[in-house]
Amino acid sequence: MSQAPFYVSPEQLMKDRADFARKGIARGRSVVVMRFDAGILLLAENPSPTLHKIAEIYDRIGFAAVGKYNEFETLRQAGVRYADLRGYSYDRTDVTARGLTNAYAQTLAGVFTTESKPFEVELVVAELGLSPETDQLYRLSYDGSVIDETEHVAIGGQADAITASLAGVRSSQMTLREVFNHGVTALGAATQTILATDALEAAVLDRTTPKQRTFRRLDDAAMSALRED
Amino acid sequence: MAGFPPAFLSSTSNSFVELARSSAPEALPHPSVRDLAEQSPEGTTIICFRTASGILMAGDRRATIGNLIASHSMEKVKAADDYSVIGIAGTAGVALDLIRLFQLELEHYEKIEGARLSLNGKANRLAAMLRGNLGLAMQGLTVVPLFAGVDESRPQGQIFSFDVTGGKYEEHRFHSIGSGSGFARGALKKLWRADLDHEQAIAVAVEALFDASDDDSATGGPDFVRQIAPTIFTVDLENGVTEVESATVLDTATEVVARRTATAR
After folding, report:
1. What is this structure's pTM?
2. Do B104 and A105 touch (CB under 8 A)?
3. SUPFAM superfamilies given for it (chain B) (predicted)?
4. Residues from chain B contacting residue A56 (CB–CB below 8 Å)
C-alpha cells in the first residue's frame, strides 16, 4: 500500500522558502548603495579583492548583490548579456534599469515559486540619470519583489541596522567624500567593528566623466584618500 | 518562465558574438546578395606606426561607390576599447558593423570576466571574427582591419594586420591598408623613425595620408572647405586611447600644404 502524500499548504510552502532564503542572506555581509551630488556610490563590506559584490552592467547601470556568490554571479552575467544584446540590437540609450529590473524580478519570482530552492540573494540595480532627478535605485528581494528607493538603499544581513543609522541622511545633496564616510560608518556600526579599507569594496557611477561607461572602481588608495576616520 | 531567456542564465561563454549567434541571430550582419559589392561604399587608406611612447593610427574620411564619393566624413578608425584601436578598409557597411561588434565583444568579455583580454587575445578574437565572415569575403564584400594597442606586458605597443581569411600578422614598425596604402607606405618608409614624439608623429601621419590622397582617387585629403581632418588616434599605456583634436590635425595639414607649395611637389 502506498503512503498517503503529504499535504503542505501554499502559505506554509512559501513561508518555508522565504525563511530559507532569508537565513542564507542574513549570513552574508552587507552592501549599501547611496546617491551623491555627482553620481551614485556602491559600497560593500568585502574582504576579497577579486570576488566582487559590485559590478558594471552597462554604461550607466551598476549592480550590487549579497547572498550566495554563485547565484548572484549567474544573475550578474545574465544582466550583462541582457544589456549588451539589447544595446546592440537597438541603441545604447535604450538599455534601462527599469527593463533590467523587470527581467531580474521575473527570474527571481519564477525561481522562488517553481524551483526546488529559491535564490538566496538580494540585489540592487542602480541607474545614473543624465540629471540627478532621474537617478534610479531598485532593490530586489529573493522572491522577486521590487522596491524603488530615493536616497540610499542597503541589502544583506544588517540591512535594517544600516538603513536605521542612515535615516534622515539626504545623501543626494552631499559630496562623494561625505557620502563615503557616512556609508563606511553605517556599515561599521551595523557590525560593531571599525572596517579596514582593504575590507571594503567600492565603485561609483560618475556623472562627471566624459566617457560613455560611467562605472569606475575605487581602489584601496582612492578609498583611503576619501576616509576621514 | 518570464524574465531572462534560459540561455542567459546557463551560458558559460564570455563571447558576445557567440551569445548573439545563439540568442538573436537576426541581430548580426549577414547580407547575402551577390552583386551588392558594386553598390556598397568602400573605405580606403589607414596607416599605423610605432612612436616613441606607443602607437599612432590614422585614416582618411572618404568613402566611394565606384567613381562617386559617397561620404566626406566617414570615420574608419575607432577606439576598440581603452587601450586599443581598430581601423578598417573595405566595404563600409560591413566594416562599421564589424567595428561595432568587435568593440562590444571586448566590452562584453571585460564585464563578464572582470578583466581585460590581453592584446594578443584581442587580436586573435578579431581574427576569429574575420574567419566567421569568410562567406561575405567570397561574395566580394571584403573587410580588412588593422588593429593596434598596448597592454602591461607590451607597453611599447603592437600592430597587427589581417587578411580576409582571418590570417593575423604582427607588424613591427609601420603598416598601411586600403587602396591608397602603397603610396602611404612609401611615404612612411622615408619619414618614419622609431623615436617620433607626439607632434612629429602627427606630422608624419598627415604627410603619409596626403601622399595617399594625392595619387589615389578613393582616399580623401584634409578638407579645408568643410574643416574635415583625417582621424588620428594615439595609444600609450599612460593615457590610453586619445583622439587628436581635428583643429590640431588641420593646423598640421596647413603646414604640410605650405611646405609642399613652397617646393611645388
Report:
1. 0.89
2. no
3. N-terminal nucleophile aminohydrolases (Ntn hydrolases)
4. 111
